[in-house]
Amino acid sequence: MIFVPGSINRTPTGVGITYHKTGLKKSIHMNTDPCGILVVDKEKNMTSHDVVYLIRRLYSIRKVGHAGTLDPNATGVLVMLLGKATKLSNKFLTEDKEYLATMKLGERTDSADIEGAIIDMREVDVTEETIKKVISEFHGEIEQVPPMVSAKKIGGKRLYQLARKGVSVERPPVKVFIKEIEVEEIDIPLVRFRVACGKGTYIRQLADDIGERLGCGAHLVELRRTRSGEFSIEDAITLEDLRKMNKDELDESITRV
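Above: the chain's sequence. Below: its structure in token form.
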């Protein structure tokens, strides 16, 4: 409440002032949330929203978002948007991403990654040269069928919501663009590769598709995002360091927009 002077009363000891409530509320709250981008190196077994919650709790920041979800099993670059920068999420969601991925040949899972149940096992009878050749064939524009565990909507429902109920639906293939793809290391049955890709690319589905083309099946066992747009893993702060920072140190780590 705001109090204003009312009537002036003269008393034996001097002048007294009677104050009255105006009925108006005075707002003393000011938005002190930092505004900008914080690049975080997400740990395994955390959701992207877990990182949002962590930053809110540690630094009492009300508006926190991110520019592109990472699966709980994935690590690496997660672009966090603070304050008014949360309005820029759509801009960052469309930017290219880069990953280091490891797939295991000889096994397919129902989710195309290590979290799923094995649905098919086959002998791995391929050479390193064949693996490199097949992987190189996925360069450029390709078609992918979105996995059932993805957030893509079909008939107004997100696919992962249907998958949790044991429901599988037809998914039309979508075109995605693989800007770069190359093998980093082969230690059969494990194959490590680097991929730079455009919006909407599912790396788990890429691993599954490569496995099918090789004829032995495959699933994704490890994924690390090394770049999102202009932000690379070298720009990222570990969550361990983030937990040790005070608010001034956090402020110095933010990229202004």
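Confidence is low (pLDDT under 50) at residues 1-8, 10-30.
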